[in-house]
Each structure stands twice: as C-alpha cells, then as structure tokens.
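Supplementary Methods, section 5.1.

A reviewer requested that the exact input to the structure prediction be made available. We therefore reproduce it here, unchanged from the version used in the analyses.
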Amino acid sequence: MEIVVETTEYDHIDFWRDYSLRRNWLQRCLFLIIAGLILSAFRPISSVYLINLLFLGIILAPLFIGIPYFESKKRIRKAYDSIVSPTALRMYKPFASGIEITGESPATFLRYEDIRQVGRTGNFIYLVPKFGGYYLLPVGCFSSVEEIEHFFRVVKNGVANTKGVPVKEPFTFKPGYLVAILCLIPVIGFFAGLVVLILGIVHYKDKVYIIMGAIGMLITIGIYGSMIYFVQTSGIVKDGFANIAQIQLNDLVKDIEFYKLQNGAYPDSLQQIQTKDSFTSIDDPTQAINGNKKSVTYQYQRKGNKYLLFSVGKDGIANTADDIYPNLSNADTSKLGFIRK
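The structure derived from this sequence is encoded token-by-token as follows.
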C-alpha cells in the first residue's frame, strides 16, 4: 500500500481548526451547562428568565464551542512554519518497522518507535515525530474508507507495539495570559475567571493560568461582597433609602386621597390603590437594607374615616423614634384623613 499525498497550506489550517474543535468538546459543553445552572441559581426561575437564559446560551454556544475556528492565525502559522516543505508531494508506504516517506530530499524512513503520536480527526490522519513537526495525510488521498482504516490501524499498532505514544496531546499552545485581564472586570470577571480556571485545569494544565482564573472569580466575589456589606451597614446608604421612603410616602398620601374621591372611602389595604398602569410604589425601601428578601410594604391601617401611614425606618421596628411619616403641613393634615398615631 502506497499513499500519495500533496498538501496545501489550507489543508494545514483546516487540520488545526478541525483538531482544535474536536479537542475537549465535551468539557466545553459541560461548561455551558454548569454556567447555565450557576446563572439560574442567582434568581427565581420564570418564563421570561428562561427565555433570556436560552437566548444567552444560543449566543454563547457557537462562540465557546466553536471558538477554535477563530484561533489566532499567528499560532497556526507558527505550527505550519515548523514543518520542512509542508506542501511537498510525498508518498507514504507502511512497513513492519516504520513508514517509508519518499518525495523528500533525501527520502525518510520514519520508524514507529520515533513517532510520538498518531491520530485522526474528521478529515486528516496526522503523525507526530519525536524530533518535531508533523506529517499530515488528508483522507481524500486514500482510495477508500477501508484503505484509510487499514493504514491507520497498521501505523497505530506499530507505534503502540514500540510504546511510543506516551503523550495524549502533542499539540499544545502556551495559554494566552493577556486574556486573563478580563478577570479584573467585575461580574464579567467572574465568568471569565471560571473559563480561565477550567481551561487551566483541563486543557493547559498551567498553574499560573489556574491561579489567574481563581483570582478573577475572587475579585468579583470580594467587590460585590464589600458592596453588600457597605449597603447594609453604611449610615449614608440608609439615609438615602430613608429619603426615598419620605418622597414615596408623600406621594402615597395623594394616591390614597384620590382613591377616596373615586370610591367614597379609604382603601382597606395599600394593594387596592395599585393598578396595572399605576406607578405607585407601596414597598418600603428601608427594609431592603435590613436583609429582608421579600418585599415589605409601608405600614398602613384604616381607622374609620381616617388612616395611619408610615415607614418603620432604618431599624425595621414599628413605633420607634426613627419611624418615617408623610411630611405634611398642619393645614394639609386638617383636610386629609391622614393621622400620625
């Protein structure tokens, strides 16, 4: 059996893209699934959220799973230039102890024990010698599928018999450390750090890359953890929410009085003044900084033809000194149903 091969530069580029795409494809798919689960844990599941998550997955899947197609031309060129006469016409003839390669000057006999790895992608068979470079055989150079299988089996068995296949991944690139700069960006840095961490463990097996990914995730966690702590403990932030509550309470009085004009009586609860087109807010913003995950409305109680309305304030306890009431003049109070206590 003699295989005549003449490769072009495009064959080598297609090989690298094909090889890179098939490498670690399972890890890429698992990453997308895990990332989706992490995102879904941050907020309650709803139909709108699932649609947004699906849309995000549709965008990210081609980019992440097919990212080798955009692999740097500089890297491909570097690998391509490492071969002596990469486009030369060659004839490969396998024997019991190795492969005779003619068409080069001089001819080469590549012994199986000198082959670092033999492998196959969808469109190519590749041989990686221990002395560097690689030989590429497009499957189109074979006359039949049976001939492809026979050649690959003979060479692979020959290499295996000499125990010349100790390396799983013959083609490895140095990780792009500059990409890890994305890890410094809050929020984006968490997911970029997760990608860098996984690639460092699974693909590059590079300690520096792994550390950079972990640091990127910790930066986002640290920044947002500090922000949450600041919001919950800072007097400035609490005062800001108290000012918002004061403005909303003043507006609520107007809405409650308008409700009475329309219905002849004050509402039994604040929910009654909310309509589909209403911009009225009945949620007390001062409670968001007290760790309440559920919405807490302003304190409201109808008392006959009067009503009580206030915010429990920064301490979250009703009927204390920091309770916030609508800011109304005495003249206004006499015309309205609002009472302080």
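Confidence is low (pLDDT under 50) at residues 164-171. These observations are discussed further in the main text.
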